[in-house]
Amino acid sequence: MILYSGTKNASSWSFRAWLALKEAGLRFDLKHVDLTEPARGNALAAVARFSPSASVPALIVDDVVIFDSMATMEYANDRVGGDLLPKERKARAVARSLLAWQHSGVSGLCPALSFESVFYENKRGPTAEETADGERLLAAWCDCLRRSGGPYLMGSLSLADLAFVPTIMRIFSHVAVPTRWAEAATWMDLLLQRTSVVEWMEDARRLDPVYLPDYRDGGRV
Q1: pLDDT for 177-214, tens place per residue?
Q2: CA separation for the pair 182, 27 (Å, rounded)
Q3: Is residue 171's pLDDT more than 80?
């Protein structure tokens, strides 16, 4: 298998796919697709030669191209006999609901706060709408943790946990988790300490920002 992955401090979609493959214990080669300018256009044009979406991540398995992050995560789960999703039918449906919510941008939170901004020195505060969306997300996570008994959303580690890792970073690098959501904060810490997450983030933090905001006007991102 070959995973074509975007620049590690920019491509949250690649991060999710990579995490699922790593946590499934699968062996694969990693091919870096440079998303920095001016290399970005040519790099994605090269991906377009074999992937219909002309985007990353793209997983090559023999002569088949899996060109979506969630499809790659589902493939990793299938390769380990479904161990990264709950066995019980309703719990599995909840996990897939969480995955779909994340895949659609979590009510607009992810498009508003880029993954690149995790690595910016200066960060803006959240808007009132973003704060409300973040509270709704925290409430959903805590509800799952209470129902499952933890330590992960569905009890044991699942694709739902892995899908939210970049979102945890992009939102809560801008704002602290309110103390009333302590269960969610504990879950976040547990996820961020996983070897796979630490490995990706160590690499990402060594890179120059893909886009560096202009702070001369006092603005923060």
Answers
A1: 999 999 999 999 999 999 999 999 999 999 988 776 65
A2: 36
A3: yes
Q: How far is CA 117 from the centre of its chain?
A: 14
User: If we measure between CA atoms, which residue out of 67, 17, 64, 16 comes closest to residue 44?
Assistant: 67
Percent of the chain with pLDDT over 70: 95
Q: Is the peptide bond before 178 cis (omega within 30 degrees of 0)?
A: no
Q: Which phi and psi (to 5°) does residue 45 adopt?
A: -65, -35
Backbone angles phi, psi at 20, to 5 degrees: -65, -45
DSSP 84: T
Q: Which two tokens stand for residue 176?
A: 């602290």
**What CA–CA distance (Å, rounded) separates 83 from 89?**
13
Which 3 state secondary structure label does DSSP give 104? coil
Q: What's the pTM value of the predicted model, to 2 decimals?
A: 0.93
Residue 166 gets which letter from DSSP?
H
Give start and end residues of each alpha helix (H) in the chain.
12-23, 40-48, 69-79, 89-103, 109-112, 128-148, 159-172, 182-192, 195-205
The token pair at 84 is 């990264």
Three-state SS at 3:
strand
